[in-house]
Amino acid sequence: MENVLDEKGSQKTAMDALLYEINRLKGLHPYICFIILNQMNDNYILRADNIKSQRPIESDVYGSGQLLKLCDVLYIKMLPWRLGIREKFMVFGKDSYAWIEDYKIYADNGNTASFEPLGVAYYFYLKRRNADIKDIQDVFAERIFKSDELKNKFPTTKSINTSSTPLFTTPTFERESIVPLGNLNDAFGSPLENIDEPF
């Protein structure tokens, strides 16, 4: 959305025109799913190193006012370590988010917990039409890399501005050995074999 070409007027005008057209097409073709890719704005960066306000909110989405009205589902995918968050991601009561227990780190006081930031993608659902956000599981997690493999690549730091490690460095891993598949003709036949037979 942020990269919509601005041919006349402002970027907001161009974005509004695109959303209007998508909304019109939704009315004409209710069986088609429209996927809008967007970016978070700079609001999040301003508070990223405050653990109490790291959960994304609606105003972090570029053009959120229009999107919230238009979309049936609106979610944000976050990679905390890409933002320089290394030790803990967010803070919440220890009993919160029981459905993603494997990604929680418990505080020493035993009352609070945080999410593991390294190597995990988090999906925050900000809207699901016809569902009360209080009654649904609104955060999901997906492990991308093992955190032990990332700790050497990304040293621990509390501030996103003090890390000497580039935020966008991609970790390197050893390739697993490739098992040979053998001769493909053995599996699928030669190109001229059984040419008239159905698949």
Describe, in short, the structure shown:
The two termini are 43 Å apart. 12% of the residues are buried. The protein has four helices and six strands, in the order H-H-E-E-E-E-E-E-H-H.
Explain what the structure shows:
The chain is an alpha+beta fold. It has two domains: 37 residues, no CATH class; 113 residues, no CATH class. Helices cover 18% and strands 16% of the residues. It contains four helices and six strands; from the N terminus they run H-H-E-E-E-E-E-E-H-H. The strands form two sheets. Strands 1-5-6 form a three-stranded antiparallel sheet, with no helix packed on it. Strands 2-4-3 form a three-stranded antiparallel sheet, with no helix packed on it. The chain is elongated, with a radius of gyration of 23 Å. The protein starts with 10 loop residues before the first helix and ends in an 11-residue tail after the last helix. About 20% of the residues have low confidence.
Notable characteristics:
single chain, 199 residues, alpha+beta, three-stranded antiparallel beta sheet, 4 helices
User: Number of helical segments?
Assistant: 4
Radius of gyration: 23 Å
Count of individual domains: 2
Helix content bin:
10-25%
**What would the principal axes of the Cα set say about the shape?**
elongated
**Order of strands in the sheet with most strands:** 1-5-6
Instruction: Please report which band the strand proportion falls in: under 5%, 5-15%, 15-25%, 25-35%, 35-45% or over 45%.
Output: 15-25%
The total count of strands amounts to: 6
Span between termini: 43 Å
Overall average residue pLDDT: 74
